[in-house]
């Protein structure tokens, strides 16, 4: 995410159907895991979506 300085953020994802939206590391904004961003550094997270079958 370009333009964000050093800060913690919470990430909400909105995938295509058949998956539903959610929060990284939690069930809502309050329980979501904070991700620390540092200016000029790459931060990688992995979101694993369950098999919809």
Estimate the global geometry from the Cα principal axes: elongated
Structural class: mainly beta
Radius of gyration: 13 Å
Distance between the termini: 32 Å
Query: How many strand units?
Result: 4
| Poorly predicted residue ranges | none
Element-by-element helix/strand order: EEEE
Strand content: 15-25%
Total helical segments: 0
Average predicted local confidence, pLDDT: 90
Architecture overview:
The strands form two sheets. This protein has a two-stranded antiparallel sheet with strand order 1-4. It has a two-stranded antiparallel ribbon with strand order 2-3. The protein is 0% helix and 19% strand. The protein is built from no helices and four strands. The radius of gyration is 13 Å and the shape is elongated. Strand 2 (12-13) and strand 3 (22-23) form a beta hairpin.
Descriptive terms for the model:
mainly beta; two-stranded antiparallel ribbon; elongated; two-stranded antiparallel sheet; 53 residues; single chain; 19% strand
Task: Explain briefly what this protein structure is.
With 53 residues, this protein is mainly beta. It contains no helices and four strands. Strand 2 (12-13) and strand 3 (22-23) form a beta hairpin.
């Amino acid at each position: 995410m370009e333009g964000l300085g050093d800060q913690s953020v919470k990430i909400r994802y909105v995938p295509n159907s058949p998956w539903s939206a959610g929060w990284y590391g939690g069930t809502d904004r309050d329980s979501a895991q904070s991700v620390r961003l540092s200016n000029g550094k790459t931060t990688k997270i992995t979101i694993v979506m369950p098999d919809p079958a």
